[in-house]
Amino acid sequence: MKCSKCxxxxxxxxxxxxxxLCSYCFSRYYWQRVKRNIVRNNMLSRHDxxxxxxxxxxxSLVTLYVLKDMHYDVNAICVDxxxxxxxxxxxxxxxxxxxxxxxxxxxxxxKDQYGITIDDARKRDPAKPACSYCGVFRREQLNRTARELGxxxxxxxxxxxxxxxxxxxxxxxxxxxxxxxxxxxAGLVENELFVPRIKPLRDSPEKxxxxxxxxxxxxxxDIECPYSTDAFRRDIRNFMNQMEEKRPGTKFGILNAYDRMxxxxxxxxxxxxxxxxxxxxxxxxxxxxCKKCEMLQVLQEAA
Length: 303
Ligand SMILES: [Zn+2]
Ligand SMILES: [Zn+2]
Description:
Blueprint: E1 12-14, E2 19-21, H1 23-40, E3 49-53, H2 58-69, E4 73-80, H3 87-100, E5 105-109, H4 110-114, H5 118-124, H6 130-148, E6 153-155, H7 160-173, H8 176-179, E7 185-186, E8 197-198, H9 206-215, H10 231-246, H11 250-267, E9 276-277, E10 284-285, H12 291-302
Parallel strand pairs: 3-4, 3-6, 4-5, 6-8
Antiparallel strand pairs: 1-2, 7-8, 9-10
Helix pairs in contact: 2-9, 7-10, 7-11
Bound molecules: zinc ion (2 copies).
């Protein structure tokens, strides 16, 4: 298999565009696609300070690598959720990565911030999927930490596959309101307490993140969380991979269709009331007490 551009040995077959690329041409192509995504969606300006949420997996480390390579002012933020045998395994990859590349790194622990780990949450409330606690706590940790560090944007490693899964999950469940909130720059509120979230890799297929990490010497650990049990998402993922296999370009097709529908979806949103500040912690919320404080109370009562 030869590179379609330079006839070196190809390392990847990109069937959706009928091209095979060598490691050099692939890296270039990939980098330019991320750049285009950032520019087209107005994700970043040169004045931005970018907090990058990193886990030690390929998607987040590739995000950090590419943004640093583009000379953005980055600060890595890693949330230690307190999941033994999992996060303690991936954090060393984050530390090594940031040390080698002289990137400032801030690690925040659920244990320190909330006095509770996800392992604790799991034990105290076994009926509820640990992911719902984990997601709410992580979002709060990332937003608050980014804000405290003076970051003006918060980048996450969501890739094309993640985006398409969420779009379809919301679509299949009829969650139109939620669909309007999954765009390239997530969150609609403009408020000084809220750091806007961006997804530089949202049109990068997961498979290509693997190859990009490999050819650029990015070491990562993508072990699966022991609590991950989302069967619905898994079904959608398998279904999408089958469709992509049969009909290359399906994932990009869905993302493009979604992006074109997004302004219509957003204009149809029911009035979004101005966000309130949580009575307990002062973070933004749509009700009197934020989701995180509500969850913490449940867990404290179950202790
Ligand atoms: Zn080439
Ligand atoms: Zn609160």
